[in-house]
Amino acid sequence: MRPTTEDALAHCVAEASGPLRIIGAGTRDIGRPVEGAEISTAGLSGIELYEPGALTIVARAGTPVAELEAALDAENQRFAFEPMDHRGLLGTDGAPTIGGVVAGNVSGPRRVAVGACRDHMLGVRYVDGSGTIVKNGGRVMKNVTGYDLVKLMAGSWGTLGVMSEVSLKVLPKVEATASLAVSGLDDAQAVAAMSACLGSPFEVTGAAHMQGVTYIRIEGFEASVAYRAAELTKVLAPYGTAEVAMGAAAEALWLDVRDVRPMQSTPGDIWKLSVRPSDAPGIVARAGAQSVMYDWGGGLIWVEVAPGTDLRAVLGTFSGHATLIRASEDLRRMIPVFQPEPAGLAAITSGLRAKFDPRGILNSGLMG
Amino acid sequence: MQMPAPDARVMALKARLVERLQEVLPKAAVIHDPAQTRAYECDALTAYRCPPLCAVLPSTTEEVAAVLKICHAEGVPVVPRGSGTSLAGGALPTADCVILGVAKMNAVLETDYADRVIRVQTGRTNLSVTGAVEEHGFFYAPDPSSQLACAIAGNIAMNSGGAHCLKYGVTTNNLLGVTMVMMDGSVVEVGGAHMDAGGLDLLGLICGSEGQLGVVTEATLRILPKPEGARPILIAFDDNAVAGACVADIIKAGVLPVAIECMDRLCIETTESFAQAGYPDCNALLIVEVEGSDAEIDHQLDLISRIAEKHDPVELRQSKSAEESARIWLGRKSAFGAIGQISDYMCLDGTIPVSALPLVLSRIGELTEKYGLRVGNVFHAGDGNMHPLILYDANKPGDLELCEAMGAEILTLCVEVGGCLTGEHGVGIEKRDLMHAQFAPADMEAQMAVKDVFDPKWLLNPAKVFPLDTSESRRAK
C-alpha cells in the first residue's frame, strides 16, 4: 500500500486486518524484522510550508531528505542535527525520507552541540493504530501546549503511529568550517581531549575519534573560526599538536563521521552505544571489538564485533544503552535490537503501546 | 474559571490522612493547620486561591514515594509544587488535595565537568544550579525570568524556557535524566548522563507534562561552558511591523543571536519612568544579544547593525562595555515589575510564527479598543513567543472577567495564525478551557490516554491542562 493522502493512510490502517509493516523508503532496516502488509509513506510527499525567516519547514512524511536539503540549501539553511544517511553502513538503497529520519530520531555529529532530531522537531501529524488522525505540537519554536507527543513519536520507529507530516526547525548554514586533528592518542586520552574542547567556550560542533585520530570541528563566521581554531590548538596542546583543515576537506571528513564510513565495508556486526563519555574507554576495553569509532565526544560509540555476538552479554551492566544496528535477520530475531528496559519503564512502554496501537499492528515487535 | 467541587469523601479523610502522613514524614513536614496551609493556597497566578487539605514537604525520594503510596491507597488527589512561581496556576490546589512540595529537596548530588552534567534534587532553584557550577566556568542554560526563585521541578513540569533559549533551547533540550516517583509510589529512572533514549523517548514525554504523570525528584541536567562574553545592541523603530521584518532578516542572515527581545511603546514608556534605562522615544524596541570573544561580538553586532540600518531605525545603540550592556537590559528586565507598579495585569504566553507578528500586534490593538483595556507587549521576538500584558483593575467588579475574555481572544488569535496557546508557561488552569481552540477531540484523547498509563486513577494534578468537561469521565473514577 502506498497512500497519497493522509485520509487514505488513515483508511489503510483502520481497515487493516493484520500486522502492518511501515516504511518510508526502507533505507534504515533497523530493528527486529517485521512481518505484515507493507505501507509505504513515500507517496505522501512534498514540502507544505517553508519560512526561512521563521526557521521552519513543514513537509509530508514521505518527502525525500534530498528534496528538503535542496530547498534549504537554496536559502542557505540546513538541518542542524545533521541526519545520518544509513545507506552506506547498511548496504541499502533508495531515497531516505524525512519521516524515516524522525521515526529513528536520526542525528549526526552535531548532536553533541545542538541536540538530536527530536530537539529540532516542532510538530507531527500521525495516524494511530486505530486509524485515527492525531496532531501534536505545531510549527512554532516554543510550544508547551499539552503533552509533548512530538518527542514520543521521534524515535518510535513507526510503532506508535504512522507519521503523515512533520515540522522541523532549521538553522542557517555557516560561512566556514574548520577541523582540528590530533594523532596518536589512546582512547582515554582521546575522550579527555574531546571533553576539554567541549568544555571550552569555543563552541565545538563535532568531537570524534576514529582510526587513531581525534577530530574537533568548529563552524561559524570566517574570522571567528580562525580565532577559535587557534584557541583550541592551545586547549589541545597537552594532548599533541593539532593540524587544522579548513573548508571542503573538513566538511568531507565530518560526512565520513556522520555516515560511519570506516565501518561501511567491514565484515562484522555493528552496535551503537550511547554512554557517559568518561565511561566510554572502559566499556570499549571490554567489548572485544574488531573496530571502534567514537562520536559526540565519546558519548556515542560505534562498535564492530564478530558476527552473531551479543554485545550486551559481553559487556554486562553499563550505564546507557546499546542498539544493534547491523546484523543478520537471525540475530535480530534472537536478541533484542533495542536496549531492554527495567520492569518499571517496560510497563510504561507497553502501556503506551496498548493505547496508541491497541491491536498491536504497527511495526509490531520492531522495538522488542 | 471553574475547579471541580471537592470530594466530600476525601475531605472527611483529613484526620486519618494526616496521621498516616506523619508516620512516614517528620511531624514538621506535614502541614495541616488551616492557618498554615494558606501559604500554599496559590502560586504566581494569584487571582485564584484555595487552601489544600494539607501540604507535605518531603526531603528524599523515599519520602515522596511513601507519601504518594498513601495518597494512592486513600484515593487522594496530589498537586506537586516546586517553588510556586507558575503563572498558569500549575500548582493551584483544590480543597481536597495534598500539596506535595519539593522545596526541601535542593541538594546537588553530583557535578561532572568532563561529562558536562550536574545531578540535583529538583527543589533546587534554577539560578542556583548555575551557582553550583559557575566557578568552573559552566552554566545551566534555560533561564526563565523567575530563575531566582523557580525550582527545577517546576521547570521540568512546564518545560520552561527563557530569553536565551533562542540559542540554547528550553528545558527539554537540556534535560538528560530524571528520577520520578509514580502515583502508586514506585520509582523509575529515565535517562541518565548519556544522550537519547534507548527505547521510546519517555523523558521527552515527562518533560512538560505539568506534574500529571509523576513527581520528578532528581534530575540530570546538561551544563555548558560559559561564553567568553556577551553584548547586546538596542535597535529602535517607529513601527512594530518594521521591527518584525528586521527580526526575520537578522535570522535569515545567518547570525544566531542568543536572544532577540522586543518591547512596544506602552512597555517602553512605563519601564522608562520606572527604571530610567535611557531608552529612546519610539514605538518598538529590539534588544539583540550575541556571544563570543570581543572581536566575534563586534563582528556580529556590525552585521546586525547593517541589517537594521536597511529598515531605517530611529536609533541604533551598540553596547561596548558591561555597563552599557546592563543599561540596555535594565528596562527589559524591569518591564514586568514596572507594569505591575501602574496596574494589575495578566501576562499571556502565546507563540506565533514570526511572520505573523505585524498582523497579531495590529489585531491586539483592535482588541484594546473593543475591550477598553490597555495591553503592553514585551516578548521573545526571535521565536515568536509573545507576552501581551493586559492591564486591568482587580478591585473593579467584572474587570478580571473582561481581561480573561480578552486574553482568550488573543490566544485564540495566536492559534488561528498557526501558533499555540502557551510557549513557555504551561497550560495549568489558565489556558485549560481554551485547549479546544488548538486541539481536536482526538488530539486531546491521545494526550489523556498517556495520563491513563502513568496515573490510571487520575490523582496527580487532575484538574489541570485538559478542559474539565473533557477529562470528567476519567477524573470521576
Explained architecture:
The complex is a heterodimer of chains A (368) and B (477). Chain A has 368 residues and is of the alpha+beta class. Chain A has three domains: 6-172, 2-Layer Sandwich (Uridine Diphospho-n-acetylenolpyruvylglucosamine Reductase, domain 3), CATH 3.30.465; 176-258, Alpha-Beta Plaits (2-Layer Sandwich); 261-334, Alpha-Beta Plaits (2-Layer Sandwich), CATH 3.30.70. Helices cover 30% and strands 26% of the residues of chain A. Chain A contains 13 helices and 17 strands. In chain A, β3 (47-51) and β4 (56-60) form a beta hairpin. In chain A, 57% of the residues are buried. Chain B has 477 residues and is an alpha+beta fold. Among the domains of chain B are: 8-103, Uridine Diphospho-n-acetylenolpyruvylglucosamine Reductase, domain 2 (2-Layer Sandwich), CATH 3.30.43; 228-338, Alpha-Beta Plaits (2-Layer Sandwich). Chain B has 17 helices and 18 strands. In chain B, β8 and β9 (187-191) form a beta hairpin. The longest helix of chain B is centred in the last third of the chain and has 21 residues, at 322-342. The radius of gyration of chain B is 23 Å and the shape is globular. Classes of the chains: A alpha+beta (368), B alpha+beta (477). The interface between A and B is large, with 86 and 96 residues.
In short:
The complex is a heterodimer of chains A (368) and B (477). By secondary structure, chain A is of the alpha+beta class. Chain A is built from 13 helices and 17 strands.
